[in-house]
Specification:
By secondary structure, this protein is α/β, with parallel strands linked by helices. It contains 15 helices and ten strands. It has an eight-stranded parallel sheet. Strands 9-10 form a two-stranded antiparallel ribbon. Helix 1 runs parallel beside helix 5, helix 8 crosses helix 9 and helix 12 runs parallel beside helix 13. The longest helix has 18 residues.
Length: 362
Amino acid sequence: MSERHQQTLIIAEAGVNHNGSPNLALQLVEIAAKAKADIVKFQTFKANRVISRYAPKAEYQTLTTDARESQLDMVRKLELDEETHQKLFKRCTELGIEFLSTPFDEESVDLLVKLGVKRIKIPSGEITNGPLLLKIARTGLPVIISTGMATLPEVEEALGVLAFGYSNRREPPSRDLFRDALATGAGQAHLAAKVTLMHCTTEYPAPFEDVNLRAMDTMREAYGLPVGLSDHTTGITASLAAVARGAAVIEKHFTTDKFLPGPDHKASLDPQELAALVSGIRQIEVALGTGAKQPAPSERKNIAIARKSLVAAVPIKAGEPFTPENITAKRPGTGISPMDYWASLGHPAHHDYDTDEPIGAP
């Protein structure tokens, strides 16, 4: 688990911003790799298995797509087939960026495992989908799970399902057994090794007043797991602030063009903003440092220049006592520290001093 804390994992969330086009999806891979993100993430689903024909659109989807179209019809056009997944995975390998996807149904989990993904992302909307969580845990793959819209008890129950699945327990699943698995040392060890939690506000775009970055601390303290941010705000401010608060992972939507038709483009970063996010995160990581309060190597040379030493305020004769009237503190800081000012008062001068001449040791 310590390895995951060394550097913030940056997920460039392509999501469904390919609009169902394999070529646009490949272009998104190119953009994410050029921006130096660690991972580019898509969404894998069979619309008919995920959405009923009675499911309404979210308000933001109604505003960004045809309001007369059902959610099912909207999402059906955004599916990527297995051949496209293979092409995306291959291109990611060629460019040295990890391919990741969010499965929304069990068949899609099997497809991602077949592809050879290193981990699986669980979206906020599936955090209460016990059968899907169990299916994912039984793959044995690490997971990143978003917690948008969730309460702590819901997060805890999801962790119980994962602990049960990772432990390879074969009893008929139940909430009681999930709680039991979460309480065991083995279950906790599996979670510590394989689970990262993502704080998230499930609105597009998310209002800054609803982001609540301190919830990251709450989950980290509650479960002892790495915590990151799936950021749905506009711009990159919230993501950068989350890194400064110790985010293990940052996930952010991006697009080729914010004005393309589709549900998520307007709340996404453009390619230049994505590159700025990655650069900003890497700078923050370096700036966070070790926590030790001591002079940095770059500033040591300025200590003598910026600090002061005790000097003669006026000419002083040998044997004349040092007084507040004849000694003061001035740059450079190459002599006696002004912290010794009071200890020097009353001591006789060992020799004559010109104005500004450094005072010798008493």
